[in-house]
Q: What sequence folds into this?
């Protein structure tokens, strides 16, 4: 896998930094960072599928939603304990997502994006009309069991999840599987021409992505204690995930984490200055500028910076 | 003699255009055959059908006696046939070593995860097509057309074929590179590889093949020793306007 000492050092520093964070920042900031952690998980999920293979998903909230609703319904309506409902939610997201999106994985480019977007919309409509006694209809659900009390514990749980997902995916994508998945994004025909089943590889990427989305979605609703379809199945949410991955650096796993933190903190610090929806304009502008300056994202900017430091020292 | 490749009554229509017209031929195990014909004769289309990238309209393709037409491309490659592309198709952001690595992978996700790459084999393949060790880190954007063809060749060899289909491997190469690839092919022939080679460069092709098959408008027009085929009236006529 080509691990070097500085990989250990950087991951170690990152984990230690996260562990010390509650000592360093206010409860309010910690709550913001909890959101950043979940956004990072969703952005990694997007990266594993779309960043790698080039099959751009606009409907990640669809997957997150399956996980979130599954555990919400199981715990709230059937009193299933979270130890069971969360794993079930992950599996249901993988299976549900696969049944729905497997046919879509045959079509490349904007079609795939459109189909995923359509499914997000469809899911939004469905949870409102089908069995509202279960889903809570338009209003969603509240009073779901929460796993932690207080910002500090919520932060630790989210950070633990995020680091586990990030580290495992980072390691996995450094194997030959990661190389094969990137190859799909570059030239799917040549992947077939190299004797590999592109369909199988895409399915693996999709299942990984769905599992992470389901896991993140499930833990996130148990953090919030509520589920609101309007906020969940929202195009802005889908965009935030994609933008986080892109400006951080797609296909790198670490990039989406950086992107998620950057975006969340940017939005947060703009809040006092621009309380309304204008914030999104600024964030769109910043994202666009960054993207124009370095399409490979912040990750690449950092790498180039490090390379320069190494050369000059 | 074992037949490596057996093509029988192959037909491919693209709408109204018949790109392969009732074509039948065989390539024996260990044999090297040239497939020639003017631009648009249908040579590449034959390759795409053998690999399953295009489905034939009708007809049969057998590899060592086994019908492969129902199989997807990846399975055909596992059965031992592999091709290069006329227009090289590298993985643009992977290094030379990683490009070859993809060719070396078996279609098994667990193996991809649990076993690391085989740098020795990657290097060996790269060297065999004429790369140097320093080239391993380069990306396709930094490669010349000749290098891209070498990479294409190395990745195709990496899949471990028994039968190799080479589509215009000499196009865009320098004289030195042509000699180098030619030597590699000769060496692989010595090791028992079976070849079907498409080339417009007949001079480079001649020493590499035992036999030639000429097609035009997707139809077989001549078959036999290389010299006989290029002397053939119909073949000469088909090449009018092209340079023989
Ligand atoms: N995908 C396709 N759709 C429609 N027509 C096609 C397609 N592929 C090839 N053809 C046509 O089929 C015929 C044979 O093309 P092919 O590429 O096989 O020829 P070729 O012998 O390889 O030519 P060249 O020497 O120029 O490479 C041509 O008339 C071409 O235009
Ligand atoms: Mg051709």
A:
């Amino acid at each position: 896998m080509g691990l070097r000492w500085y990989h250990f050092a950087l991951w170690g520093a990152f984990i230690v930094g996260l562990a010390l964070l509650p000592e360093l920042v206010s409860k309010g900031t910690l709550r913001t960072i909890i959101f950043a952690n979940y956004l990072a998980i969703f952005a990694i999920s997007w990266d594993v599928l779309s960043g790698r293979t080039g099959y751009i998903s606009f409907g990640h909230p669809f997957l997150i939603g399956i996980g979130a609703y599954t555990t919400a319904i199981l715990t709230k309506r059937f009193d299933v304990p979270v130890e069971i409902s969360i794993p079930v939610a992950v599996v249901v997201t993988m299976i549900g997502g696969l049944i729905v999106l497997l046919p879509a994985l045959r079509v490349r480019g904007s079609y795939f994006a459109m189909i995923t977007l359509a499914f997000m919309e469809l899911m939004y409509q469905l949870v409102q009309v089908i069995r509202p006694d279960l889903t809570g209809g338009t209003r969603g659900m509240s009073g779901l069991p929460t796993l932690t009390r207080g910002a500090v514990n919520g932060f630790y749980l989210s950070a633990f999840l995020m680091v586990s997902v990030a580290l495992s995916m980072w390691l996995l994508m450094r194997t030959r599987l990661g190389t094969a998945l990137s190859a799909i994004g570059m030239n799917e025909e040549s992947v077939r021409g190299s004797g590999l089943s592109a369909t199988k590889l895409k399915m693996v990427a999709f299942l990984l992505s769905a599992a992470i989305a389901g896991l993140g979605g499930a833990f996130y609703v148990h953090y919030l204690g509520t589920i609101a379809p309007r906020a969940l199945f929202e195009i802005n949410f889908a965009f935030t995930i994609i933008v986080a991955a892109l400006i951080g650096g797609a296909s790198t796993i670490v990039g989406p984490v950086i992107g998620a933190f950057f975006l969340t903190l940017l939005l947060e610090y703009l809040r006092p200055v621009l309380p309304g929806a204008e914030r999104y304009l600024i964030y769109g502008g910043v994202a666009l500028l960054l993207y124009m300056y370095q399409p490979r994202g912040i990750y690449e900017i950092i790498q180039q910076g490090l390379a320069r430091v190494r050369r000059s020292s | 003699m074992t037949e490596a490749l057996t093509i029988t009554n192959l037909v491919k229509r693209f709408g109204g255009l018949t790109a392969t017209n009732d074509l039948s031929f065989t390539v024996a195990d260990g044999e090297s055959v040239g497939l020639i014909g003017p631009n648009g004769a249908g040579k590449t289309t034959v390759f795409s059908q053998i690999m399953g990238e295009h489905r034939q309209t009708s007809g049969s393709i057998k590899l060592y006696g086994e019908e492969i037409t129902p199989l997807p491309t990846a399975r055909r490659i596992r059965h031992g046939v592999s091709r290069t592309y006329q227009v090289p198709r590298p993985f643009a952001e992977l290094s030379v070593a990683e490009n070859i690595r993809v060719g070396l992978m078996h279609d098994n996700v667990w193996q991809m995860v649990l076993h690391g790459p085989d740098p020795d084999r990657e290097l060996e393949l790269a060297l065999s097509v004429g790369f140097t060790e320093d080239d391993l880190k380069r990306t396709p954007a930094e490669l010349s057309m000749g290098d891209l063809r070498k990479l294409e060749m190395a990745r195709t060899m990496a899949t471990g074929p028994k039968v190799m289909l080479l589509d215009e491997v000499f196009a865009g190469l320098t004289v030195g590179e042509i000699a180098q690839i030619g030597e590699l092919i000769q060496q692989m022939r010595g090791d028992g590889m079976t070849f079907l080679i498409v080339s417009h460069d007949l001079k480079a092709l001649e020493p590499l093949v035992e036999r030639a098959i000429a097609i035009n408008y997707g139809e077989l027009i001549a078959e036999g020793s290389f010299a006989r085929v290029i002397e053939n009236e119909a073949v000469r006529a088909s090449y009018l306007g092209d340079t023989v």
Residues B 14, 17, 19, 37, 39-45, 86 surround adenosine-5'-triphosphate (ligand 1) (CB under 6 Å). The longest strand of chain B covers residues 3-14. The beta strands of chain B are 3-14, 17-28, 32-36, 58-63, 66-67, 81-83, 163-167, 194-198, 211-216, 219-224. Residues 160 and 205 of chain B are 23 Å apart (CA to CA).
